[in-house]
C-alpha cells in the first residue's frame, strides 16, 4: 500500500553517506514561506546542516522580519512577499510552515510556480481540502509531501524494524500520549479558524505513527474532545483507532503537563520510545525493548540511537527524492489518509459513535 512505498533504506543509505566526507553533492535550492518559529528555530538550522539542502531564500509579508531571519540564519535572499519568492527562478523547492489554514492555498501556488513542496503538518484543514492538492501535483509534475520529521528519524525506523522482525511477537496495541501547556490567546495553536487545537497540532503524530507501524488504515475510530471555553479549540482529546491487526489509543492536550511517550505492545514483548516526537538533536535517544519476563523491568534491554537532527534527515531525504526521482518520505496520499482519520475523530466526538475514515 502507499504508506510503505518509502523505504527506510533511504535513511540508512543517507546515514552511511554522512560518514563519507569530501564528496561534493548537488544541493536542492530551497525557499521558505514565512518566518514561523518552527522554521527559524528548528527546521531551517537542521536543513542547513544537510548535504543536499541549500536554504537560499526566506520570505515574509513583513520585509523587515524576513531580513532579520535571513541575517540571523545567514540566508542569502529575503523577500517581502511570498509571491516574490515563488517567482525566483533559482528556487527549486519550497518549505511551507505557514499557519494551518494557509497550507493548501500556498502549496498550490508553489506547485503552480513549478516548485516542489515540503508542507508542514497537518497538510490541510481536512481531507477534502488535502485532496485538492492531488490534481495540481499530477498536472504540474512536482513532488509534494507532508513534513512529519518523525517518519525519517532512526529511532522510529529501528522500532518498526524490531516489530517487523517479530521482536515483540504480533503487534496488538499502541498507546501514546503527547501534551504541552499553552494558553496564549495570540498563539496560532489556539485559533480554531486557523486550524488550531491539540488534535491538529500534536494528535496527528500518534495517528500517523500508528498507521505507519500497523502498515494499514484504521477500520473505524472513536474519540472524545474537551474544548477550551474561551478559544473554542480542543484542549484535551482521546481516541481509539481500530485496525484489522489491533488497536491504537492516544491522548493529546494543549493544556496539560508537557509529556510524550509511545508504547508498542505485542504478544511476546513491548517497545517504548522514550522521546518519540521532539527527539533532541544533541543527545542520544533510547528505545526500551521489554521481553515481558518481569513487570519490574528486569527484562528490559535498551537500544541507543546516536544523536541526530531529524530535520536534517527530513530535508536531505526529501531533497534526494527530488534529485533522484524517488518517492518522498510522507506522500500526499499518506497525508490525505491522516487527515481522514482526524476528520473521523472530530465526527465521532460530535456523534458519540464510531466513525469510518474516508480517505478517498
Number of strands: 14
Q: State the helical fraction.
A: 25-40%
Taking Cα atoms only, what radius of gyration do you get, to the nearest Å? 20 Å
The helix-and-strand class reads alpha/beta
Shape: globular
Measured by DSSP, the beta-strand proportion falls in 25-35%
Spatial strand sequence of the major β-sheet:
8-9-10-7-11-12-13-14
> Low-confidence stretches at least 5 residues in length (pLDDT < 50)?
1-7
Largest sheet: 8 strands, mixed
If helices are DSSP runs of H or I spanning 4 or more residues, what is the number of helices?
Answer: 11
What is the element string, with H for helices and E for strands? HEHEHEHEHEHHEHEHEEEEEEEHH
Average pLDDT over all residues:
94
* C-alpha termini separation: 14 Å
Amino acid at each position: 500500500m502507499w504508506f510503505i512505498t518509502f523505504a527506510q533504506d533511504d535513511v540508512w543509505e543517507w546515514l552511511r553517506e554522512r560518514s563519507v566526507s569530501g564528496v561534493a553533492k548537488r544541493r536542492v535550492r530551497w525557499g521558505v514561506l514565512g518566518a514561523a518559529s518552527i522554521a527559524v528555530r528548528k527546521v531551517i538550522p537542521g536543513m542547513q546542516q544537510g548535504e543536499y539542502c541549500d536554504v537560499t531564500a526566506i520570505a515574509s509579508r513583513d520585509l523587515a522580519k524576513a531580513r532579520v531571519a535571513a541575517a540571523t540564519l545567514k540566508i542569502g535572499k529575503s523577500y517581502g512577499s511570498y509571491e516574490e519568492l515563488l517567482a525566483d527562478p533559482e528556487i527549486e523547492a519550497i518549505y511551507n510552515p505557514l499557519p494551518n489554514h494557509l497550507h493548501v492555498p500556498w502549496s498550490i501556488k508553489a506547485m503552480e510556480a513549478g516548485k516542489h513542496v515540503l508542507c508542514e503538518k497537518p497538510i490541510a484543514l481536512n481531507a477534502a481540502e488535502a485532496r485538492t492538492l492531488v490534481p495540481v501535483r499530477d498536472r504540474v509534475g512536482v513532488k509534494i509531501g507532508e513534513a512529519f520529521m518523525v517518519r525519517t528519524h532512526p529511532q522510529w525506523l529501528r522500532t518498526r524494524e524490531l516489530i517487523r522482525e517479530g521482536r515483540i511477537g504480533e503487534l496488538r496495541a499502541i498507546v501514546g500520549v503527547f501534551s504541552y501547556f499553552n494558553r496564549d490567546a495570540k498563539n496560532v495553536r489556539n485559533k480554531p479558524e486557523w486550524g488550531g487545537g491539540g488534535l491538529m497540532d500534536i494528535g496527528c503524530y500518534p495517528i500517523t505513527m500508528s498507521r505507519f507501524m500497523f502498515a494499514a488504515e484504521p477500520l473505524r475510530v472513536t474519540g472524545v474532545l474537551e474544548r477550551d471555553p474561551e478559544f473554542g479549540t480542543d484542549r484535551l482529546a482521546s481516541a481509539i483507532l481500530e485496525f484489522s491487526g489491533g488497536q491504537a489509543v492516544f491522548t493529546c492536550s494543549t493544556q496539560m503537563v508537557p509529556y510524550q511517550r509511545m508504547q508498542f505492545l505485542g504478544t511476546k514483548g513491548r517497545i517504548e520510545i522514550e522521546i518519540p516526537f521532539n527527539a533532541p538533536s544533541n543527545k542520544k535517544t533510547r528505545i526500551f525493548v521489554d521481553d515481558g519476563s518481569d513487570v519490574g523491568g528486569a527484562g528490559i534491554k535498551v537500544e541507543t540511537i546516536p544523536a541526530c537532527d531529524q530535520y536534517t534527515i527530513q530535508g536531505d531525504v526529501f531533497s534526494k527524492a527530488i534529485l533522484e526521482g524517488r518517492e518522498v518520505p510522507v506522500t500526499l496520499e499518506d497525508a490525505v489518509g491522516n487527515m481522514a482519520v482526524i476528520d473521523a475523530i472530530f465526527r465521532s466526538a460530535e456523534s458519540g459513535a464510531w466513525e469510518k475514515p474516508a480517505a478517498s
